[in-house]
Structure prediction request, 446 residues.
Amino acid sequence: MRKITFILLLPVLFLSCNSKNEISDLRPNIVLIMADDLGYGDIACYGNTTVKTRNIDLLAAEGVKFMDFHSNGAVCSPTRAALMTGKYQQRTGVGGVITAKNHREVGLSLNEITIAEELKKHEYNTGIFGKWHLGYSKEFNPTIQGFDEYTGFVSGMIDYHAHIDPMGYLDWWKGTKIENEEGYSTDLITKYGVKFIEENNPKKTGKPFFLYIPHEAPHSPYQRRIDKALRKVGVAGTEPVHSDSISSIYKEMVEVMDEGIGKIMQVLKETGQYKNTIVIFLSDNGANRNGNNGDLRGYKAGVYEGGTRVPAIIRYPNKIKKGTLNNQTVLTMDVLPTLLDFIGQKPSSESIDGISIKDNLIHRTNLPSRDVFFAFGNKSFIRSGDWKLVRIKSKSGDKIELYNLSNDLQESNNLSSYNPDLIYKLIGKLKIWEKEVQEGVELISK
Prediction:
């Protein structure tokens, strides 16, 4: 009788296992790679003729290259808060940089639902290797905010060799413990990313994975693989690098990151996950004066296009047409709802500001019309279609500028004196937005 029962149950067991495998196959893995301070003109596929970024260029050739993608912030922490939550960063209280000097006790609220927590609900294995920058204290550690595994640093920048932050603190974590190891940070980040993919192959685990690789490169301090450490524990500050050598070091830092991305793509091939993995590459803000923002005006921390318009690429074979350009206005906060949409889910939070661009990516339909906003310190702007209104506050009064980006991407022709009605309308919208998103406690505003 037991043998008969077992035989009768076999088809059910087979169908159950098969169904699980089919579900796993339908849900894509996700690899999200964020460069640090990489400008709009810092890589070859965006027009740089001196740097060699063949692996990032290959991602663009296999997917969609965005021409009007904007980081939510013009500095590190705000953009990362928006990426993790799908919200304007001001709603989370992280409107400025969480610095090593002044903000060691604050971070992204545990009440926020991160992209990792969202994907954990749908049985994703999650890992982050690299820069967190959303809280120094253990209570804000990424392993407490949805990530199963973490190796990396929590500050804005570390010595690439000694792994020491600007205030002289050792900053290399494994989970919630500081545990230093030898190695160039870019290579270590790649090593752990490759290992995570190997160990979390859905063919072995039955679950898809979400891998977040926030690189340090090409953020300062400017160091090559062969360079010596610049910092010591207990000593704040960084030894200067001769300005004549920064450009060559910067170029190598970008190329080493690109080399690591090639290793990530190779292990996806070796594990049979190349086609079933969404790969996203983007930057957290524009480059500083040592980088290249192409023909755009301004730099990191600024209000102009060079501060927020960044390189961004998404590839998902057989779903997104390869080799296409996307001219829609997209922001970092759109990543979370888009990835959830790809697995048939919606964000849990009620106050998501980002929108899904899935249909736009697959069917190349236009995104719904929307105004988008930016604020950092005394600087803010609103984008409404091709129009961009810039407001810079000062004690002597607000400075207002107006540009039409459709024919003036360099923001060289201020039209504010010709469009008073439009300015009145856009300033009104900007003020309403500021009041709405800053109703909560603002932890970091500058």
Summary: The longest strand covers residues 29-35. Confidence is low (pLDDT under 50) at residues 1-24.
